[in-house]
Each structure stands twice: as structure tokens, then as C-alpha cells.
Amino acid sequence: MDPFEDTLRRLRETFQVGHTRSAEFRAAQLRGLGRFLQDNKQLLHDALAQDLHKSAFESELSEVAISQGEVNLALRNLRAWMKDEHVPKSLATQLDSAFIRKEPFGLVLIIAPWNYPLNLTLVPLVGALAAGNCVVLKPSEISKSIEKILAEELPRYLDQSCFAVVLGGPQETGQLLEHRFDYIFFTGSPRVGKIVMTAAAKHLTPVTLELGGKNPCYVDDNCDPQIVANRVAWFRYFNAGQTCVAPDYLLCSPEMQERLLPALQSTITRFYGDDPQSSPNLGRIINQKHFQRLRALLGCGRVAIGGQSDEHDRYIAPTVLVDVQEAEPVMQEEIFGPILPIMNVRGVDEAIEFINRREKPLALFAFSNSSQVVKRILAQTSSGGFCGNDGFMHITLASLPFGGVGASGIGRYHGKFSFDTFSHHRACLLRSPGMEKLNAIRYPPHSPRHLRKLVVAMEARDCSCTLL
Amino acid sequence: MKDEPGSTNLFTKLDSAFVRKEPFGLVLIIAPWNYPVNLNLVPLVGALAAGNCVVLKPSEISRGTEKVLAEVLPQYLDQRCFAVVLGGPEEMGQLLEHKFDYIFFTGSPRVGKIVMTAAAKHLTPVTLELGGKNPCYVDDDCDPQIVANRVAWFRYFNAGQTCVAPDYLLCSPEMQERLLPALQSTITRFYGDDPQSSPNLGRIINQKHFQRLRALLGCGRVAIGGQSDEHDRYIAPTVLVDVQEAEPVMQEEIFGPILPIMNVRGMDEAIEFINRREKPLALYAFSNSSQVVNQMLERTSSGSFGGNDGFMYMTLLSLPFGGVGHSGMGRYRGKFTFDTFSHHRACLLCPAGLENLNDIRYPPYSDRVQQLTRWALGSQSCTLL
């Protein structure tokens, strides 16, 4: 018995009758999403605190405000984004109407993870709804409190003939993926990303995969260690390190490491006090499985800062590891926790060589007082996104696309990029039903003279404002 | 290649935000046999312009072109970053087991699935330029001779072996009566009384496809043409009528100089017919009424759309070329090709100092700080600040 069959059929039928096409309908859905966030803010904060011990600050900044911002941006720009884009024409098509029309794909599946369970569900949803699709949302079953709110509260704010939340674990997700969707948007691990893409291939369904990796953070000798420590620590320990774009490991010289360690300790104390476990501003690990995984990583290298853990609380102290070997687990898998290993390199070249030997990460960071060093690292590596002298600030800018490359992902979103991701860009050329004489030169029997004229007429013209 | 600047919010005002285009690395281009120069070289242009190394796998079926691409083309390129590989389905399967950083495939939906499945093992992004049956709706409000000219030219170009050719006509029985003599007249004008001797009509690529097409001539009833010659792999410009939806000619992509006509009783029935089927690569609508053309555009979906003409839009490099649903994913031509073969990397360069500005984001937190942060995040776009 397939639990999803009826839901999917219902949503498809709604799409086919054109229910979701108008700007008014889409705007109403987006406003509904906005009201969901406003009406349930406290509920959402409580749920995030329950699932991940997120502080009100983190919940507001990285979950609610980001989602609200995307809703507002989409509402402000919806009609502009939906507009046909007229394109420059050739001589042969001067009298025609040539444009790109944005169309919804149809039935979209969004699969979200547990680490930013509101953000990573709602931000893609904004794009999918703005683009006029019907949406099936599959939130993570691991972030249980948010899952409950998304399943029980969110549908009340949206038109349920074109929106549904489905629940379940890996087995149910596998069943769901056997169905045909018109677009699949997945955020999660590369391992599951492959499963999703393979399932999508059976139906020729396009996908966006927001995956992960180990995000390198190079720290040059020419740096203020305290400033670097502040910035790296904030981005590393935010959400107890459970962030796909967090700096995963540091690359620096042994000399820099000596200067960084006391600076990092100072930062951690400033941020979380002498007893981080009692700070309201430090998150917790999502579940036992990940807690045990992370606790095992504490055995790699040598603990220079932190290293404490508490199973009952799923608490891991803000930790820095040194003397780490590349073959150790902490340098093999994405850490996704409040542990920062430091690998020593003897300068920029060795750092670049180290980075390029490995899979392309989702994010890459370089700290240096010298903009030349920063630019060099940028120029000689590849990654989803890059930030010089800071952490993942770049993802707060809706004007920049957010996505991976290589093993860290396919496709991108945020802001207008979300709308474009969930739209088919249809090339359109509307010609006159008359004026047939102009077409005579293309018909057989052919002549070299006609061919010459045709080639000239088809030549691209860079600016449509030049007179014929 | 230029970095594209992005707009900043209050948090990032003093920073440099831009999108940098980077090559993916090693790109595989798999090309078909019907436009063997175009469909090899046009993707190649984009892959090279974007800075990638390229492996080209031309079709083994268009042997003459395959030879030239394998023997002559590499002489014109730097062979450290460009290679042509040859072979059939088995060799291609082997090739696809390797990891590429991008795969660009033009061909059938069936093989498209195989390519995407292979790509999924390495999380390799793909562009798939596939095919389908491209519907061509002809309204009653039309000049049949003009429609006949335009449809015939695009249908019989390259002996119909074009992924964006009108595959079948949808019109009323009345329109069909007016179209048939017009189509005959056009075909005679284009190819003479004996099309087989016209220098302007192509031939079918190989025996396998010739036999396939010859079998399709048995569907419905031949209204125009219908002749074939096995030795020449010649199929006459043909129009079929009285065709049933279940017949092979209405089930598979024709890819030959055969045009079946299905009758519908108006635009609504045409739209309903079209929407019951897979989204095609191209869709055409002919009508003197721009309202009818716009309705057809509004209420259907396809890779691209042509109103009152065939695939003329292919000549405009400012329009993206690609499919949707079973007709494909991704797009190219012109700048779209460059963008297809580039990773768009979001970059933010922040000052190494000015640390005081960052204080508001660090714990321990206060309520006032939260308000400020929310406001700062929201203040994007070109408004002052």
C-alpha cells in the first residue's frame, strides 16, 4: 500500500488545472508562509530549543529571520521575476517577439535536513511556491519538534490542494523517491545525494543537491590571531558546529597555531563563559548517534582546548584539536560538531596543494591581512562559495547564489536563484502569420545568394536598440 | 569570464561580494549523429570558453564526420586538454564509469536516463538535450499555403532528422482538407516532381532508421508521398492522415520526413491532447489570431515555443535551448553554454580588521542586539545603506 499515491495525484491534478499559475495565488501562498512564521514564532523558538538547544538569538538570526527575509524578498519581486524576459534579436527576427517565459515545473519535492530545520525547509519552499509549483515537503524526522509544527501547523497557512507535508524515515523517503516528480530539491549528505539523483534519473527529473564536505579554513601567518579566533570560533561553534558551511578544519603554520590557541581559548571564554555547558548560547548535538560519533572524534590528535562531553545533555564542549593526522577520522569525514582540528602547513602553496587533493568543499575560507594571499587562495582552489577574512557571511546575501560544486553539490538557490531553480525557462519566438515573402530566401530550391543573405540576417546583433 | 558583483546588506557593506565563474574541470560531451558538426562543436565552444578540459565522444553512426573530428580537429586544439574518444554503446558505457566534472549529452531520453544514472554515482552535474514528439497546432484561422510552407520546411529539413522539428500536426478536418493540397504544392515547389532527384532533400542516416521509418509509412493512410528506396535510404516527403493515437507513428519520435495529421475539434481539444503527453522539446502553434497563439503558449509547457513558424528561434543565440521533463534538463547556446559549463562561485571578501563592527554578532547576546541584527539582515538591494 503506497501511502503517497493519493496525495501526489491530488497535487498533480491541482497543478494541471492551472490553480497555482497566477501571481495573486502565489503571493497569497507566500503571505501565508509569512503569517505562519509570525503567528508561531514562540512555538518555533521553543521547538528549535528542544531539538538543538538553539538560543533565541540563533533561532531568530539563522532560522526565522532568514526565512522571513526570503518571503519578503519574493513578495517584493514576484511580478518582476515572473515577467517574460525579452531578448536581443537578429535582423531576421527584428519584427518578432522573442522572450524567455518562466514556467513552474509542476510537482516539486523538497527534502530537508535537521540542522537548520526551519530555514532549510522554508527557504526552498519560498522559491518553489513563488515559481508556481505544487510542493511536497519532506522535513527531517530527526528534528522532531520542528517536524511536528511543519506537519500540523504549516499546512493551515497554505492552500492544501497544492501543498502537502509527508513524514517518515529513510524507508519512507525511499518509497517517496520511486514516484515521479518534476523537480527534486535535496539538502543533506553526499551519500544520500547520490541515492536521490539515481532515483531522479529514472524519471529524468532535474535536481538541486545541497550537500556538504570538509570546509578548509586557511589562516596565514600575516594575521591578527585574536580577530581570526573570534571569527572562526563564531562560525565553527554556531549551532554547536552543525552547519554545512562552517569552517571544518584549520590550515596554518605551527607558529600561527601557537598564537591562535590562546586567542581561541580567550574567544571561547568570552562567548560561552568559563563553563560553556551552562551557557544559554551554545547548542547541543541533535541526537545520540551523532553525539557518539563526535565523542569518538575527540580521541583524534590531542585536545588543546575543550574536549569535555556529557552524554545526558548531548553536550560537546567547544573543542580544538592539534597534532592531527590526515588519515584520522576527524580529517576524513565532515565533522558537523563543535570540534576544530588544526592541520599544520608551511605556507600558502602547501595549503592549496592540500586543499586541491581533496573533494571540492561547499565553502572555503582564507584569513590574511594580505589581500593578495586571499585572492591567490580564491584563484587556485574551487568550492561552492568562498569568504575571505570571515566565515559563512556570504550565505546571508540573497544576491549571491548558494550551492556546491563536485561532491558538495549541484545547483544553487537563495533569493532570485531559488525562483530560477524552480522555473523552466522556456524560449519563445512569436512571428507574424503573414509577410511570407520575407521567408522566401530560406526555401528550396536553394541558391548561394540566398544562403549569403540568410546567414547575414541570422547574425547576432549585440544591441537590440541599433536601428535594423 | 568577468566576476559579477552582488549587492550587499548592512552587515556586508564594506565587503566585496561577487560571483566568480570557474571551470568545472574535466567535461565529457556526447554528441548524436543528426547534426554531427553542430551538436559536437557548439557545446565544445562553451566548454572551452569556460576553461574546461574536454573529452569529445562523437557519434559512431555519422561516420564521415566522426573521422574528421577524430583526425583533423585535435590538430587545431591543445591536445593536453582536449581528446576525442571513439566507440559504440559498449565503449560509451565504459567511459561513463569514469568520473567527470560535467557531462553534456544530446540524444534520446532512453540513453539520457543511462547517462544521468551513471553521473549520479559521482555526483556529476549534467545537461541532457533529449527529444520527444513536438506538436504543431494549426488553427482554422490560417492561410493554409503559408502554414504549409513553414511546416514543410522545418519538417523535411535534414530529411526530418531534427530534434526540434514539428513531429505531428493537430488541426480540424476542415483545415486538413485545405492543408493537404497546400502541402503538396509546397513539396513540389521545394523538391520538384521527383523529390528523390532533388539536391535539397536529405537521406536517412542508416538502414536501421530507414527500416524503422518505412514501417511507419504503414500507419494511417498516405495522403502525400509514401515512396521509399532502400538502396538510397530515401523516404519521400510524406503526409499521413487518419492516424490513431495508439499507432507507432504517434507513439515514438518520428525523426524522419513523415508528418502525421491528428484531427482535433479546436484549440481546447488540442491543448488537452498535448498535455496528456510528455512535455516536448518544442511546440508550435499557427494562427492568424495572436490570442490563440498566446493561449497555446499559456496552457502548455515545452522546451521552447514557436508561434507561426518552426524552429526559427534556434537562430537566436540570445534564447536558451533546452528541454523540460522528458525532453531534457539544462540549456545552452551563446552565453548559456558558457554558464552551463561554469561553476558560479559566491565570493565575499571582508576586511581583515574593523573587528568592532562584528561585536554585535558575538555571544553573549542581548535583546537589543537581536533587533539590530534582524534589521541589518533585511536591508538589502539598492536602497541607501
TrEMBL record, chain A:
The keyword Oxidoreductase applies. One of its GO terms (molecular function) is aldehyde dehydrogenase (NAD+) activity. InterPro entries: Ald_DH/histidinol_DH, Ald_DH_C, Ald_DH_CS_CYS, Ald_DH_CS_GLU, Ald_DH_N, Aldehyde_DH_dom, Aldehyde_DH_NAD(P). One of its GO terms (cellular component) is cytoplasm. The keyword Lipid metabolism applies. One of its GO terms (biological process) is aldehyde metabolic process. Keywords: Lipid metabolism, NAD, Oxidoreductase. Residues 13-424 form the Aldehyde dehydrogenase domain. It comes from the Eukaryota. CDD domains: ALDH_F3AB. Pfam families: Aldedh. The active site is at 210, 244. PANTHER family: ALDEHYDE DEHYDROGENASE, ALDEHYDE DEHYDROGENASE FAMILY 3 MEMBER B1. Belongs to the aldehyde dehydrogenase family. This is Aldehyde dehydrogenase. The gene is ALDH3B1.
UniProtKB/TrEMBL annotation, chain B:
Residues 15-343 form the Aldehyde dehydrogenase domain. One of its GO terms (biological process) is aldehyde metabolic process. One of its GO terms (cellular component) is cytoplasm. GO terms for molecular function: 3-chloroallyl aldehyde dehydrogenase activity; aldehyde dehydrogenase (NAD+) activity. The active site is at residue 129. It holds the Pfam family Aldedh. Keywords: Lipid metabolism, NAD, Oxidoreductase. This is Aldehyde dehydrogenase family 3 member B2 isoform X2. It comes from Sapajus apella.
